Every structure is written in structure tokens, then in C-alpha cells.
Amino acid sequence: MGRCARALALAAAMVGLAFAAHGQTPAARLVVQAGAPGPRIAPEIFGQFAEHLGTGIYGGVWVGRDSPIPNVRGIRSDVVAALRAIKTPVVRWPGGCFADDYHWRKGVGPADRRPVTLNAGWGGVLEPNSFGTDEYMDFLSQIGAEGYVSVNVGSGTAEEAADWMEYMTADKPTTLAQERARNGHPAPYRVKYLGLGNENWGCGGAMSTDHYVEEMKRFSHYARNLDPAQSGETATRRIAVGWDGGDSDYTEAVLKAWKSKVYSWDLEGISMHFYAVGGWPPHLPATGFGEDDYVALLDEALTMEPKIARETAIMDRYDPDKKLALVVDEWGAWLAATPGSPKGFLQQQNSLRDGILAALNLNIFMRHADRVRMANIAQMTNVLQAMVLTDGPRMVLTPTYQVYRLYTPFQGATAMPMTLDAPRYAHGAKSLPGVDAMAARDTSGKLWLALVNLDPNTSVPIDAALTGFSARAARGEVLTAPRVDAVNTFDKPDVVVPRPIKVAVQSGRVQLTLPPASVAVVGLEP
Ligand code: AHR
Hints:
- By secondary structure, the protein is of the alpha/beta class.
- It is built from eleven helices and 27 strands.
- The two termini are 39 Å apart.
């Protein structure tokens, strides 16, 4: 479809032309069983991942107390406001591969006495250690999120991890708790999630499964939360490393150990990492791509669902009651780096396509909400599929950010089962689902639909029947643009932003037309 025809289709959908305006485009038919609630969608599914990598922390979050960029105690205020607006529930830190190279003691205490080290894994740049534990905790409290601290299992010791937990959580005046108080925080910090290493089958020490499992058990036991107030429901939840991207040996070994555990260590979940890359090394362009690359990346991204199903099936064998969570704590599009950006910084632009990819993945996580109880997109600022990009004092919100903003009502909502009968989107040898959808009911009783039209050439009428729910009124927003590679830039920040979409509610049915390549979220009042 030419740009002009596509722009017309887009305009037609925006003003809500009747289905007949789109000729023979068959409608996608949804039946939402709103009276048959499914699992709760953990807010943590909308979590973030922030690593000491490129300008992910330095520049993207931390600018320093003396910076002319508006900040609170060194943390930039524009980024804080943006992350608050999408109700960021949790931020995983300090890595990634960096976590297994990180020694927390270097990042606490008076700024001028912190050692300068090297970030060996990511560009070999200087690591000033200005952003450490206290700054991370301050950042969390500024954005209103929970912590997910990954301890160093690769090059660290269980003693170091135990000391870190003591520094963060001891409520009694131990030497480390007093040091924390001198550093400005007498009260224990809350540590909701603790990652026991990162990719220890690879950058985290290339450990055999048996070796990792033994280490993981020791770290799980000794890295104790020492604050009695953080127990029971509020206890620290530990997450072990799982799937290595190839076989599921780690998943099996960790689950086997968990199933037969006899002494004081425990897990809340097991992690999984999966990036849509389009072949290693990452080479797909982030901008200026055509439909071949568009379809290839989305096709790969959709394999997240069978991968989750596979891990879930393994987990079900050991844990049929679904006590353990599958934590997808790294995911997203990994593309060719922005030309001219420093090596190892993993900087990439973020297009409408990436927003669509994010929506598809969030829908997948929500469909598996009984098992997937946290997911952390890689990464929050300036790295890979970011929420925000910064350049000195400037900040721009990406299309992926806009999807997270649209999806906030799904945090903590209850998933509703649905059936979907939709046309397919074919391009070359590939055939993808044309439409993806998800429904959930929030705690106020409102029903929400998340709808994705993957087809970049055709509008799709949506005809949704609701059972067990009578919709009185509807309001929707849609994210789209005249081109799938459209991006927001510092100079043009509003190219890919949500706009209102017309939604008709009649006799228990909801009807709207999704523009080509779009993500819509519709709220229905009971
Ligand atoms: O997100 C970038 C890197 O990807 C992480 O550091 C690592 O865990 C993964 O391989």
C-alpha cells in the first residue's frame, strides 16, 4: 500500500468510518467472556530493567547533583516523571551481565571516595560508581517502584551478597546498618525481589547447571533479608536463572533442586530471557526498514508465546500448583546500533514497529498471567528497546513508552478469557496473525480491551461480543503512524503518540476499526 492510501486508511479509522468503507476487509471477531475471570495480571509484568550499560544509568537516570539538568539528588526529574506516569512497578538493577561484575561496596559512601572502575563487559568505559545502592533506592522511591536487585553470583561470593543484604535490610545497629545510616538512610530498605545471578550459563561465569544450582542454593540461603518487618507477604522473593536460549537444562536443574529442597532456601521464580533479534549479531535497522524486516521481527517476537508455553510445561511437571513464577526479566527488540553511537552502548531508535512488538509481548505475558508474574523490558533508558531516550538535557518518549502508558489499566486487572477469529497478515513467505487481542477487568469493574493490528497495509474492523458484561460507554486511544518505521525524535517528539479512536457500543457489541499497524486500548464502562 502506498503512503497516500495508507494515510487515507488511517484517517478513515481515526474518524470512525463505518466498516463498509473498507471494502472486503473481513472483520476480526472477538467473544470476551467477562463473567469467567482468569488470573490476576501482576503489575510487575510491566516492569523495567536498567543496567550499567551505555547511557542507561549515567545520562539516562543519573546526572549528578550539580547538573544543570533538573534533578532531585542527582536523579533527573524528567525521566522520573515519565516513569511515574506509566506506573513503573519494578526496576531490575544493576544488570544484566554487569551484575556479575558488580561489587556493591564500591558504590556506597561519600561520592568523592568511591573508586572508579571499568565496565569491562560494555565498552570498557569508566564506571564512576556514583550511582550505587543508595542512589538506586532513592530512584525507586522517586518513581514509586519496587526493587529487584541482582546479586553477583559470577565473580562475587555468598558473603558479599549477604553483606549487601545486611547493608540494605538490617534493622538492628550492625556495623553495615550504621554505615547505611551514615549514608543517609537509617531505616532498612525494602528489597522485594532478589535475582540470584544473571545468565550464569553465559556472561555470568559460564557455569554448568550443577555448579550453578549449588551456588544458587548457597546464595539463596545466605543472602538474607534481616528486617523482621519484611517477612511473610512482604518477604524478599528470590529468582533463579533459567532458560539459556537454547535447551532448558538450567530450568530443569533449578526446578529439580527446588522440588527436592530440604533446608532453608527458597525461590519465588525462575527467569527467562528472550530477545527478538533477526539473527546474531543484531543487524536489523531500527529505522528506514521495509516490510520484510518488519514482518521478520514481529514473526520472531511472536515465538515468545511457544517459548513461554514450553517453559511453563516444564514448570508444571515440578510445580503443578504454580507456586513458582516464570519471570521474563529480559526481553525486547535488539537491533543494529545507532550509527555513530559508541561501541557496546546498545543504543537504538524505537519505531512504531517496536511499539507493536511491545504490545504483542505484553498481551502474551497477560495471556500467561497464571505463570508469568514479572517481565522486565530491556532496557528502561537509552539502551535497546527503551522507554525514553535522552541526549543531554533533552528527553523523548518512545512508541514503546506510549504502549506502556496505554496499558497501565491492565496492571493488577483480572484477565478475561476470549476467543478471536481474525484474518491473517501475509507477506512473502510469512503469515502472521492479523490481529492480537487481550481483555481484562480492573478492580473498579471496568473492562479493558488491548487490540493490535499487525497488518501495515489494511485496516481491520473489530466486532467484539461481550458475555457477562453490559457496556454502557466506551473510550479508546490508538497508537499508529503513517509509516511502521516512524519514530519520535527530540525535535519531533509527537509523531507516534496515542490519539482518540471512535468506538461504538450497541446491543452488547463493541465495534471499532483498527488502522493499519496499530495498537488500541479501549475502556468499557459497566
Ligand atoms: O540487555 C543486554 C544484555 O543482554 C544483558 O546484560 C544480558 O543479561 C543479556 O545477554
